[in-house]
Amino acid sequence: MEKAMERQRIVREHLQPWLSSSSHTLHASSLSASACLAKDSAAYQRTSQYGDDVVIVAAQRTALCKAKRGSFKDTYPDQLLASVLRALIEKTNVNPSEVGDIVVGTVLGPGSQRASECRMAAFYAGFPETVPIRTVNRQCSSGLQAVADVAAAIKAGFYDIGIGAALESMTTSPRGWKGSVNPKVKKFEQAQSCLLPMGITSENVAHRFAVSREEQDQAAVDSHRKASSATASGKFKDEIVPAITKVVDPKTSDEKRITVSVDDGIRPNTTLSGLEKLKPVFKKDGTTTAGNSSQLSDGAGAVLLMRRNVAVQKGLPILGVFRTFAAVGVDPAIMGVGPAVAIPAAVKAAGLELDDIDLFEINEAFASQFVYCRNKLGLDPEKVNVNGGAIAIGHPLGATGARCVATLLHEMKRRGKDCRFGVVSMCIGSGMGAAAVFERGNSVEVEGQ
Q1: Fewest 10 Å CB contacts: which of 385, 392, 421, 437?
Q2: Residues identified as active-site
Q3: Which residues form the Thiolase N-terminal domain (predicted)?
């Protein structure tokens, strides 16, 4: 009997946000009208009674630095991850032992080695041995997938506090197929397309959807211009964790320690005339160049999530609320179209419409696919990548999702009441797309006010 009563109590706690103060029942239609019609601003009212919301209380990243040439070229991957994990704890004063799990999005590192590196990084950052850690790989969306996995686990009740992190060192882990390919691939066109160089898929998008070279180069100019402006105005300071690392002089082999706190791939003097001089990289008569493609980069990021009532109990400011996540499949030959499919799916799942979204962070893997997705969805350019994107800032594959979450949420915070909903999205190699919807943290009404 006691066990049965305890089960009833737990169920009632889960249902509490939807229970009326005057009645213990609420008809399903009432729930639909009051809590689910997010696209109706009058109906979409969430209050502090939604204690089981999954919220973000901190989102940090390292600077993103050019692979093989940038400031992190001599930095161990685990050191990059340790710096952002440590920053979350220092920023929030959360006891590391309370973290239920750390999930790290990463792509290129050898599986077992990278898993061990991540575990080592947690120890460097001060986490006790009782806190578990694992990796996840959904290619370019791995960082966002890590955040989504942690959000889902918190929502499911597996734990109350978790970290979605991300790591990529493209200096130490260059891309490349290892081993032989199953001959069966020749019988399946879509399987063959999974092996296409990403630059060729960019060319396919540009050709199939008539995205001109000029449009692509202009997108690259805009990315560098906006990223340069954001850097100059100090916008990225809230999200970037200064990382102490070493650099080695290639001529003398002398080492010196430096603090890196600025993305080193942004080129403020990028011009359309300058980009026009660059030759196509992947096809002789193509339009994809080094100038209108994302930069290969090194970097890491981390997002601290928890149940809302836990954050309130700890007195932590809420940076954002995790609303929905969607991953979709598309034709591998034009994998860059992924965001054009994933974004509507995630937005619909949140009960919203595209017009309800105030800011978008869409990864600029290639200008061709970025321009296509933006135009296909009819997005206002003034809402998209307002601080630049991967063409300027960089694209450390597995870490990009966490970088975008940090950039989005800090920009939403700066904009305040004029910015309620934001979306992070990216295309994914082998033909997929992913997107997540976030709500600005302090946009929720407080009961009694």
Answers
A1: 421
A2: 140, 395, 427
A3: 54-308
The amino acid present at 72, given as its one-letter code, is F
User: Please, which residues bridge with residue 438 across strands?
Assistant: 322, 422
Asked whether the beta carbons of 63 and 263 are under 8 A apart, the reply is yes
CB atoms within 10 A of CB 37: 15
In one-letter notation, the amino acid at residue 52 is D
Contact of 124 with 89, CB cutoff 8 Å: no
Domains of the chain: 43-172+220-438 (3.40.47.10)
Q: What does the alpha-carbon distance between residue 223 and residue 231 come to, in Å, rounded to a whole number? A: 12
Report how far Cα 358 is from the mean position of its chain's Cα atoms. Answer: 17
User: Do 305 and 56 form a contact (C-beta atoms < 8 A)?
Assistant: yes
Rounded distance between C-alpha atoms, residue 430 and residue 365, angstroms = 14
CB-neighbour burial class of residue 360 (10 A; exposed 0-12, middle 13-18, buried 19+): buried
How many whole angstroms separate alpha carbon 445 and alpha carbon 331? 42
Q: What pLDDT digit, counting tens, does each position of 60-96 carry?
A: 999 999 999 999 999 999 999 999 999 999 999 999 9
**Backbone torsions φ then ψ of 430, nearest 5 degrees:** 85, 5
Contact 319, 441 (CB under 8 A): yes
Find how far residue 110's CA is from the centre of its chain: 22
Return the SS3 of 370.
Answer: helix
CA distances from 178 to 69, 138, 396 (A): 24, 18, 20
Q: What is the rounded CA–CA span in Å between residue 235 and residue 387?
A: 8
For the chain, the farthest-separated pair of C-alpha atoms sits apart, in whole angstroms, at: 79
Residue 256: DSSP 8-state: E
CA distance 446 to 449: 6
Pairing of strands 297-307, 421-428: unpaired
